Amino acid sequence: MQKTRITIWNEFRHEKTQPEIAAIYPEGLHRAIGKGIAADDFEITYASLDEEEHGLPDEVLNNTDVLLWWGHCAHFEVRDEIVAKVLKRVHEGMGLIVLHSGHLSKIFRQVTGCSCTLKWREEAERERLWNIAPTHPITQGIGEYFEIPHEEMYGEYFDIPKDGNIIFIGHFEGGNVFRSGVTFERGYGKIFYFQPGHESYPVYYQEEVLKVISNAIRWAKPVFFKELECPRTPAIDKIYSENTGPVTGIVQNADGTAK
Ligand code: ZN
Hints:
Layout: E1 4-10, H1 14-17, H2 19-24, H3 29-37, E2 42-48, H4 58-61, E3 66-70, H5 80-92, E4 95-99, H6 106-112, E5 119-131, E6 145-155, E7 165-172, E8 177-186, E9 189-194, H7 207-220
Parallel strand pairs: 1-2, 1-3, 3-4, 4-9
Antiparallel strand pairs: 5-6, 5-7, 7-8, 8-9
Helix pairs in contact: 5-6
The chain binds zinc ion (ZN).
The site of zinc ion has 4 residues, from loops.
């Protein structure tokens, strides 16, 4: 069996600086997620912001099928050249799962091309997540809805692209609603944004949350890796139209530079 190679990236700052967060996630929330989703077909590694190259050197990125991303207070510290490499890898086929406050990460904003802003409130509200994509691989085993006893409220308007496929609608005790699970495709890569996971509640120990993340990993797993190109291509069939002018086609690489 070919295992899915998963890298769980965590900013890993709250757990080091706030004892109340460390009490919930003593080894970091990335390791709690990793333990929670452990399966025979998963090979899990961990990476975090303060490691060399944020724990994402080429040998790690080139051996990752699906990258999970949790960040919050230090998005701006993530180096642009690392973000560019992650984006390129997504375009080549790597799956990307962006969790909770990762909505404002550089990688999610670049992958979506949007501000990804939203409303928020930290009042330990109950969230009910409605499964509005019952046939989607990500919702299998979840049922019509599930509830998280205490979660940070994320509310609309959420500035994300309109081509997102909505998987879950979150409804919060205080009245707000939110697109709590949305998929995108960019290049050859699949992307899933999943809202649950505020650091001061034990959300990543909850069975349904871990199930959704596991399903999302299996869904986002690449079919293949391939560099995106912008090639000049020969005709398949004979062209009978008369060519009356000079050939003016400018041939470019996928990134816009001249060949
Ligand atoms: Zn939060």
